[in-house]
Specification:
There is one protein chain. This protein has a domain of 52 residues. 55% of the residues lie in helices and 0% in strands. The chain contains four helices and no strands. It starts with a helix and ends in a 22-residue tail after the last helix. 6% of the residues are buried.
Length: 110
């Protein structure tokens, strides 16, 4: 289920990018570069703008909803909780440092 939702999320993200790029801005936008310059002849200028605006709204809303659903319910590894040492209250004791015993150098009498 997780993989399916992630794949749907990626498809929605790509569609959202394309729909946003197809919209005409004041400067003409990138719509003409992707063949969106002719979209006004299919729907009419006003209807094309309304369609792309609504498509952007629906795609963005579905993107956010699916992202929240995946994060809240299907995120892998969510059921595995590990408590830290501080949360468990266990005291950790460090071993006492071992001081090496130094032997006295032997003196030689000449």
């Amino acid at each position: 289920m997780y993989t399916t939702l992630v794949i749907i999320e990626i498809i929605i993200a790509v569609l959202l990018i394309l729909v946003i790029l197809m919209q005409n801005s004041k400067g003409g936008g990138l719509a003409a570069g992707f063949g969106g310059g002719n979209i006004g002849t299919v729907f009419g200028v006003r209807r094309a703008s309304d369609f792309l605006s609504k498509a952007t709204t629906y795609l963005a809303a579905s993107f956010i909803v699916i992202a929240l659903v995946v994060n809240l319910f299907f995120l892998p590894g969510k059921g595995k909780t590990q408590e830290s040492v501080i949360q468990t209250g266990q005291s950790t004791t460090l071993p006492q440092p071992q001081i090496p015993v130094q032997s006295q150098p032997q003196q030689t009498n000449p």
